[in-house]
Amino acid sequence: MTPPDRRRPGRLAEKYGGAMAGLFWITPDTVHLGAPPGSGASSVALTAAGLTALGPQAGFLSWQDVRSVRVEDVPARTSARLSLARILEAVVGPRSPTEMTVRIAAGDGTRLTVPVHSAAASAYTAREAELSQRLLDRFAEGRSSPAVLMHWLTTTSASRPPRPAEREALLHRWTQDI
After folding, report:
1. Quick check: 115 and 74 in contact, CB under 8 A?
2. Do 24 and 148 touch, CB atoms closer than 8 A?
3. pTM more than 0.70
4. What is the per-residue pLDDT across 5-42, written as a single tens digit (0 to 9) for each?
């Protein structure tokens, strides 16, 4: 029997199926840009091997072949505007997910454009969006891997999804040279 004060690793994955950190929805096996894919939705899945785009422009690219990954149309707000948006959602109800655009460029000139839904209910913080893009740059440069995010999810003892400041701290840690 587990002592009551000890938390089991991977609790977020067990309870929620994954967790959001910045523009990423992290599962034990894959990191998705934006929300995890629903039925028929397009998506971009990131693994240690590369990225897979699903939707009108489907395909797999290894990280060696990826030159850049950019996420555009990110719903990012300052903390004051984020608070106002949450109040409005409480009064009028949640909005449908915001669509973002993922633009992927390969070394051979291939370009993919994939629409994905935001995983943030109201919006990401501007800092989350900036740090997420920095982390995507590190993946494309071969200086980091989505495996780092998956490892965090499966080893964290957190019992609730990270709040904005905690997500920013995680992203900051993942973008630092170790």
Report:
1. no
2. no
3. yes
4. 344 557 888 888 899 999 999 999 999 999 887 755 78
Phi-psi region of 76 (alpha: psi -120 to 50; beta: other; left: phi over 0): beta
Crossing angle of helices 126-141 and 164-174, in 10° steps, is 20
CB 124 within 8 A of CB 75: yes
pLDDT per residue as tens digits for the range 61-105: 999 999 999 999 999 876 544 444 444 444 444 444 689 999 999
Cα–Cα distance for residue pair 45/26, rounded to 1 Å: 10
What does the block give as tokens for 24? Answer: 């990423």
Contact (Cβ atoms closer than 8 angstroms) between residue 123 and residue 53? no
User: What SS3 state is found at 2?
Assistant: coil
**Which residues sit opposite 21 in a β-bridge?**
24
CA distances from 21 to 43, 107, 118, 174 (A): 17, 28, 12, 11
